[in-house]
Amino acid sequence: IKPGDKLPSENQLVAQYGISRPVIRHALGELVNEGWIYQEQGKGTFCLGRQSEKSNKTRNIAVIIQSITEYICPKMVRGIQDVAHLRGYGVILCHSDSNFSKEALHLRNHIKNQTDGLIVDVVLDITPYPNLKYFQEIKNRGIPFVMMYKYIEAPDYDYVKLDDEGGLYKATKYLIDLGHKRIAYIGVIRGRLANERWKGYKKALEENGIKYDKDLVKLEDQNLVDSSEREEWYSKIINEFQSMGKTRPTGITFYTDSRAIIFLKKAKEKGLKIPDDFSIVGFDDYEASKDLDPPLTTIVNPSYKIGKKAAEILIDKIEGKETKTQKVTFPAYLVKRGSCKRIVNCSG
């Protein structure tokens, strides 16, 4: 069996050798762990031929991500790990805590230790990027890397991302279809992802004949990290919306579920009801969002698929199966729950 060849199926091996299926699976598992073979779900098992020993490969990939336990990161990591395990690779996890200096440290360590490849969810997708020189050095050394979710735009940089503009467009359009005409957006100030989501909100309004009103757009400073300060900011926003009287928003779209959750909490503290006083739509579909009162309507982020695809691209690059630059965008879709209501004879 030559490198790249497909191995017989488990049923064929059982029939050929007269050995039970559990024994066959155990043997294949050992061969994966030793780097002789890799498995692709739905495709089969393939021979690697211990190419890693001939080329001094480590059979390890590094992943630099915002957090290992929070946000959408765990699902992306699980997608990466599932692919890496099937292909016979270990995963070294590093978290940047959304800090450029920590990310730079991990990138320098990667250059020094030279794992086989790297997957990165960058701290903030801005231009110029503070750590760009490290990515350029990694590129110059011929080490494959793939950016995931947030990325730096460059002709020869691989990335896997979400259709952020399309996601916020769908969130806003859903509220419009429910009869809402005064729709607010609560987002953040900086970054490509932030700009794309704002563009989706604005596009939905304009395409449906609703005038864009800058007073309904509230952008949170990313430096506002203290929980009490953030809650105070959201409390202030609710007061501003309430003070608008008949011109206040009846529907609100959010940059993330976490921001929608804070808004929901502060609204309840003020005696307001969701969706009676405000219909709200989040973004990312956090695990906790479906258990809120009411459950949060939100845009689903296929984070597991994003991580899985990033790992597939990276390992194909490492093994020389893919040489072209890969730029992949996953669609976002809406899940309807109880945080929105239809507006009848809405004016304004």
User: What level of helicity do the residues show?
Assistant: 25-40%
Mean pLDDT: 91
Distance between the termini: 71 Å
Strand content: 15-25%
Strand order of the largest sheet: 4-3-5-6-7-13
- How can the largest sheet be summarized? 6 strands, parallel
Based on CA inertia axes, which overall geometry fits? elongated
Rounded to an integer in angstroms, the radius of gyration calculated over CA atoms is: 24 Å
Total count of strands = 14
Number of discrete helical segments: 11
Q: Helix- and strand-based class?
A: alpha/beta
Low-confidence stretches: none
Q: What is the H/E string?
A: HHEEHEHEHEHEEHEHEHEHEEHEE
Notable features of this structure?
348 residues, alpha/beta, 6-stranded parallel beta sheet, 6-stranded mixed beta sheet, 18% strand
Plain-language structure description:
- Helix 4 runs parallel beside helix 11.
- Helices cover 40% and strands 18% of the residues.
- The longest helix is centred in the last third of the chain and has 17 residues.
- The chain is an alpha/beta fold and 348 residues long.
- Strands 4-3-5-6-7-13 form a 6-stranded parallel sheet, sandwiched between helices.
- The protein is built from 11 helices and 14 strands.
- The N and C termini lie far apart (71 Å).
Helix and strand topology:
Elements: H1 10-17, H2 21-33, E1 37-40, E2 44-47, H3 51-54, E3 60-65, H4 73-86, E4 90-95, H5 100-113, E5 117-120, H6 132-140, E6 145-148, E7 158-162, H7 164-177, E8 183-188, H8 192-207, E9 217-220, H9 227-243, E10 251-254, H10 257-269, E11 279-284, E12 297-300, H11 303-318, E13 327-330, E14 333-335
Parallel strand pairs: 3-4, 3-5, 5-6, 6-7, 7-13, 8-9, 8-10, 10-11, 11-12
Antiparallel strand pairs: 1-2, 12-14
Helix pairs in contact: 4-11, 5-6, 7-8, 9-10
